[in-house]
Design a protein that fits this description.
The protein has a domain of about 200 residues. It contains 14 helices and 5 strands. It is mainly alpha-helical. The longest helix is centred in the C-terminal third of the chain and has 47 residues.
């Protein structure tokens, strides 16, 4: 049986790739660029839960579609959020209401009103295509096959299979942060990871990445950019400093060796995780196309 998590050896090899720094720089820049600082959503869920919630919604929808059922319902979403320890039932309902208001999910036609079925909209799927796409673009310098993964995002069969494989592994217990548990506090804080990535982007382009020297620090700038309070930023940086991840000066901050290594391990794990799921999705989408083509050919033959 194929392992669900990237092997430690694979992570080490990827970190040693000549193009890995370029891939990390592109990945973190894309994450910062796409971040949406929304005070309402931030008040409801942590960064980790807010990022995962829409993925869970897509997963339930495609599982239901595969099994001939209405998979994305309020009840199913609440049950999955409790199972994965993402959020409470009340916050789940509030998040779904916000997603409906934002046009990311919509009511599905159904005779059984008790189930309150929902479906993801084109907007939600396009949002995920964009986020996956920029990461596949970033990965191309270390995983050339990512070019094919990027192109496959235009294929609905690939998107469906990719979501199902990502969800299968996550439900089985796979976590990208397992490769860098030191970064957990950043993931559990509002805008925590993008603040860290933004600091990493502060280094000179011709220097190592993550930067091994001081980078400019503006508490007000970070708070404004990511729609959080100055206190939030200060607390985040203080806690990271206490854990030996950062060292703060007056107007600069240094990502310590422990922090730089954790960022490398986390991004290498994420790249491999996405690539492995994409390979599974490519094979599944290809098998689905062959089955469809065979069914069409059989139907045509029977009409002759």
């Amino acid at each position: 049986m194929t392992a669900l998590t990237p092997s430690p050896d694979a992570v080490i090899r990827l970190r040693g790739h000549v193009g890995f720094a370029q891939a990390m720089r592109a990945s973190t820049a894309a994450a910062v660029r796409l971040y949406r600082g929304d005070r309402i959503l931030n008040a409801l869920l942590s960064d980790r839960a807010r990022a995962l919630f829409p993925h869970v919604a897509l997963y339930l929808h495609f599982v239901g579609e595969r099994d001939g059922e209405l998979g994305l319902t309020v009840g199913a979403m609440k049950e999955m959020c409790a199972r994965l320890d993402l959020c409470s039932g009340g916050r789940c309902e509030a998040m779904l209401a916000l997603m409906r208001a934002a046009g990311m999910v919509a009511s599905a036609s159904n005779l059984d009103r008790r189930r309150r079925p929902l479906v993801p909209t084109d907007r939600l799927i396009a949002l995920h295509r964009e986020r996956w796409g920029v990461q596949f673009d970033a990965m191309t310098s270390v995983i050339p096959a990512a070019v094919a993964y990027r192109a496959a995002l235009n294929d609905p069969a690939f998107v469906k299979s990719f979501v199902l494989e990502l969800g299968r592994r996550f439900i089985a217990g796979v976590r990208v942060l397992d490769g860098a548990p030191e970064l957990g506090p950043f993931a559990e804080r509002t805008a925590g990871m993008v603040i860290l990535f933004s600091l990493a982007q502060g280094g000179e382009p011709d220097r190592p990445f993550p930067p091994d020297g001081p980078v400019p620090l503006s508490i007000n700038g970070l708070a404004t950019r990511f729609s959080v309070s100055r206190k939030h930023v200060l607390t985040l940086l203080r806690d990271a400093q206490e854990q030996g991840l950062l060292a703060r000066g007056n107007d600069a901050i240094t990502i310590q060796p422990r922090g730089r290594e954790a960022v490398e391990r986390m991004l290498a794990t994420m790249f491999l995780y996405m690539a492995e799921c994409a390979e599974v999705a490519l094979q599944a989408a290809d098998a689905e196309r062959r089955a469809t083509d065979a069914a069409v050919s059989l139907s045509a033959w029977q009409r002759v």
